[in-house]
Amino acid sequence: MDSTKNRNVVLVPSKNRPHRIKECLLALVENSSISNICICLNHDDNTLDRYLEVLDELEVKKCQIDVHLTSGNNMISSLNEVAMKLTREYDFMTFLGDDQIVSTPGWDSIMSEPLENKIGFSYPNDLHQGEALPTSVMLNSRIVRYLGFFAVPNFKHLYIDNVWLEMGKDLKNINYFENVIVEHMHYTLGKSKVDETYENNNSQESYTIGLKQFEKYMRKRFKYDMRKVRVKEFFYSLLQNKAQNKQLKK
């Protein structure tokens, strides 16, 4: 891998939806400039063979597409497992759902710019939530390393984007790009058909559980986690400055 070219990894968790992944991947390959792609699949997914068939059908030259089989049983556990494996290989990490379609060329280079000199979060316009929520998000990989997760563990599915938004605000580096389009093809918008994954993740019970998990995390863990991020980043910066000064003296 040319690390100067592929500085971001797009993590795409998916389960039982190989029919969705092709359009997502084609759009990523066409419009990415500094990204590799990693599909995060559950080891017990009964459609694994079809995912591999879809990948065989793609002709990819601009970037690398990998598949990671995870021991997780939901999107968040799969995302976290793969993110922790890759956190030292990339400068940035991006979460993208398999029902989100990138249509802005160079979207990844654009969103990474505010993260070059200060850790934080960037997110595109999904043509639904817009600035209100980062339904897709890019962050510095160091944040994942400091926290030990990309998305808050134990969350079922919903409200993880609310946490990303609050983290970005706390770091005073949250960046919304209205002109970077990553369209969310959600069934509630009439842009796709309902399936088992949608039904499981969007029930009233899921919203109730998600809100309780979000409120509990914000109340009991958020300040501690953000303090940990800032302290670790402080010492990271000291080491970087020390290394730069040593290099200048040579």
What is this structure, in a nutshell?
This protein has 250 residues and is of the alpha/beta class. The protein contains 9 helices and 8 strands.
Please give the structural blueprint.
Elements: E1 8-14, H1 18-31, E2 35-42, H2 48-57, E3 65-70, H3 75-86, E4 92-95, E5 100-102, H4 107-112, E6 121-125, E7 137-140, H5 141-147, H6 160-170, E8 174-184, H7 196-201, H8 204-220, H9 222-249
Parallel strand pairs: 1-2, 1-4, 2-3, 6-8
Antiparallel strand pairs: 4-7, 5-8, 6-7
Helix pairs in contact: 1-2, 5-9
| Overall pLDDT score | 90
Contiguous runs where pLDDT drops below 50 for at least 5 residues:
none
The first-level CATH class is given as Alpha Beta
Regarding quaternary structure, how should these chains be classified?
single chain
- The total count of helices amounts to 9
Percent in strands: 15-25%
Order of helices and strands: EHEHEHEEHEEHHEHHH
* Strand order, sheet with most strands: 3-2-1-4-7-6-8-5
Q: What is the straight-line distance between the termini? A: 29 Å
CATH third-tier fold name: Spore Coat Polysaccharide Biosynthesis Protein SpsA, Chain A
Helix content, binned percent: 40-55%
Q: Main sheet?
A: 8 strands, mixed
What structural class do the secondary elements suggest?
alpha/beta
CATH H-level superfamily title:
Spore Coat Polysaccharide Biosynthesis Protein SpsA, Chain A
The appropriate CATH architecture is: Alpha-Beta Complex
| Number of E strands | 8
| Domain tally | 1
Rg from alpha-carbon coordinates: 18 Å
The shape is: globular
